[in-house]
Amino acid sequence: MKTIQKMFEHLNWANQRILEIFQNVEIGEQQLSLFSHILYSEQVWLTRLKGMDSLQMPIWEDGDITVCAKLIKQNEENFKTFLTEIAKTDLDNLITYTNSSGKEFMTSIRDILTHVALHGQYHRGQINSRLRVDGIDPVNIDYITFVR
Signal peptide span per the entry (predicted)? Predict the structure, then answer.
């Protein structure tokens, strides 16, 4: 559980660093779309982890910097609460959920939480690649930088 909590601390830190660069430079539509996708996906997965229906929730939704800042704050608070509440739960318990295509799956809490952390890092890497193409220095969001 300590590793998962640390991964989510990193996730929040990395999201905040991306937000800060977006607030200070002109960014393209693709970067903003990827970033809002990360944040909306975090909400969808948390909803699924809580056993609630996520079918009507957006995954790819246009957003702006203000919306992204709000989502970061909400997601950080909601995941902190969730991780605190499940601290004594067996992380290998299975969650049943329906994906955005309507297909039902069963996945462990551990695997879902790991996916959420890795999914965001994957897309933040895409954002950094696009920033570089646009002549903007990428944001250092490496885990090792976070723990230093």
Answer: none
pLDDT at 124: 97
Q: Rounded to whole angstroms, how far apart are CA atoms 83 and 103?
A: 26
How confident is the prediction for the chain on average, in pLDDT?
94
Q: What is the mean pLDDT of residues 27-32?
A: 89
DSSP 90: -
Domains and CATH numbers, the chain: 2-147 (1.20.120.450)
Residue 27 pLDDT > 90: no
* Bind-site residues: 37, 119, 123
pLDDT at 26: 87
What's the distance, Cα to Cα, between the start and end of the chain in Å?
Answer: 20
Q: Give the DSSP per-residue string, 34-88.
A: HHHHHHHHHHHHHHHHTT---TTS-SS----HHHHHHHHHHHHHHHHHHHHHTTT
pTM higher than 0.85, yes or no?
A: yes
